[in-house]
Amino acid sequence: MPNTKQMQIDSLEDELKDYKALTKALTILVGEVSCIMNDMAEPEEAANFFVHMGEASGKRLGKATKERFGEIENVEEALDTFIHHTDMWYGYKMELDHIEGNEIHINIFKCFIRDILRDRKLTTESPLCSITRGYLRGALKELTGKNVDVEVVYCDVNGVCREKIIVE
Fold it and tell me: For burial by CB atoms within 10 Å, which of 13, 75, 131, 149 has the most?
C-alpha cells in the first residue's frame, strides 16, 4: 500500500516549485514591461499609464468593498477598512502614520511592486512604482465618493515608502 501522506507531500512540493517558477517569470515579465514602457514613452507618460492602470484596478477593489460594507464617506475609515478588514490588499503591508488637515500620511512596509523593482534592480523612480498610487486613489474614490490624490513623500526600494493621501 502506497504511503498516501508522502505522496501528498510530494505533490505539494511540486506545486510549490511550480508556483515559485511562475512567480519569478511574472516578476521578470512585469519588470521588463516597466523598462520597455520607460524606453518607449516619456517618463511622465509611462508613469501616467501605470497610475491609470492601478486606478482602474483600485476602482474594481473599491466597488467590491462598497458592496460588502456600503459606502464609507470618511477616507481614513475607508483606508482602515481596506487595511484591516479585507484581504484585497494582498501583497501590501501598510499603516496609517498620521493625519495633517486634509492629508492622511501612510507608511508602506511591504509592496509587491517594490519586490519586482528590487528583483529587477530598478529604483522607485521606475514608472511601475506609480501603480500603487493609482490603486489607492481608485479604491478610495470609489468607496468614499470623494476626490483623493496620492503623492509619494519618500520611497526606498529596500525600505519603507511614505505616501500622503490628499482629500480634496
Answer: 131
